[in-house]
Design a protein that fits this description.
With about 50 residues, this protein is mainly α. It has three helices and no strands.
Length: about 50
């Protein structure tokens, strides 16, 4: 039995909208796209 999690690879991902705003030197913010979709029924890009 293995006692350490060697197969766990933590990562951070950013939506395309965030990267587009950074590239265009625009104001940006971070939201959970799944949470936005669950609460409003719309995609993150539809709000901004």
């Amino acid at each position: 039995m293995r006692t350490k999690a060697f197969d766990v690879f933590p990562a951070v991902t950013f939506p395309d909208l965030f990267m587009e705003r950074v590239a265009n030197n625009e104001k940006w913010s971070l939201f959970d796209p799944k949470e936005i979709s669950d609460k409003t029924g719309k995609k993150l890009q539809d709000h901004f």
